[in-house]
Design a protein that fits this description.
With 414 residues, this protein is of the alpha+beta class. 29% of the residues lie in helices and 19% in strands. It is built from 14 helices and 14 strands. Strand 12 and strand 13 form a beta hairpin. The two termini are 38 Å apart. The relative contact order is 0.17. Pfam families: Beta-lactamase.
Length: 414
Amino acid sequence: MTADRFTRRDFGRLAGFVGAAALLTAPQGTARAGDRRAWRVAGPILHGLEEFDATVMAFMEERSIPCGSLAVARDGRLLLARGYSRGGRGTRETGPTSLFRTASVTKPVTAAAVLRLIQDGRLRPSDRVTDLLHIGAAADPRLTEVTVARLLRHLGGWDREVSGDPMFDDVAIAKALGRPLPIGPDDIVRYVTARPLDHAPGTAFAYSNYGYLLLGRIIEKVTGRPYATYVRDAVLAPLGVTRMRLGHTLAPAAGEVPYYSQYKGTTVMDSSGAQVAAPYGTFNQENNAFNCGWLATPVDLVRLARVYDGVTPVLSAGSVAPALAIPETGARRGRYYACGWHVRQTGRGLVTWHSGSLPGTHTLLVRRFDGLTWAVMFDQRDDPSGEPYRDIDTALHETADDIPGWPPGDVTRP
């Protein structure tokens, strides 16, 4: 063990995790061996799963992440719900009820709401966006081929690698439309509709935040209700999820963690040109409500993931199966994007997941064929170490695979 790099086993030896909460001290991975940081770990955990703590703390230490949170469930039983606070920067204590921006883990939420409308007969997968929404004169006649099913699977024909991501191009859109910042969702739709598609709909997977903006608008049009209200009533309330809410660019919610980045950028919330901390104004959270707008805890997310098991009042097994099926573009090396989820085929079943990334946010939600589900959330996505944040995915899979036996019980029950 060195001061330069810590493994989860190093942290397991250092910490000696006990009980539902602990005050821990561990060497800072990027500092001299004599420099120590206080760790606060809060929340319940079943005996035998402490290696998850070591994994998350080692990951956070190497990247100097102030706050993180993890929840793990198996077959609907909550096995641990932990909050991790790394000392320094005046870090507040993080617990299982601390709220984080979900970033693109919002997409399984929006997809569940759309699938519920389909299940209830209020919407069809084949319905065309041009029939559902009044989006103005289209520059590309192929827009009539964009359906609800294709929006869910990122097959609408918009490709951010070709033409950029309009959900994060506020300054250019404001300039093109001749209007001041901030722009709104209607401005984004007007701007994109006036531009040609990058691909024929249904022919190529291209991840599109804009496509999920349209799905959110479709939810509002079909239900006659605000997006968040319908999602709460139709998706979240039946699961007992009460904390989730839409986030805001500048006004934090009660219990929401602060966000950190090493970068600054130009605000898109007004036309002042002011330089601001990247998590607070370099993107418009309100405009991105339908594609990356929710605040949640990891516990909320693992409960939400249960919807896609087809065993909750939200979606039946008959609704889930086609939603996770291979799309019209097929699978590539056993991988594809279904309705709101990345999917990997294995010899034992499907692994589905979604990650999320915004300035100040990195999130991951995973469902496995063996009944395991986990969600992890951090209040930072970049740091001087240059270490990739996507590595938490492999680290958590390896930790889960190393558990010799899963304990009985549920931390939510006495």
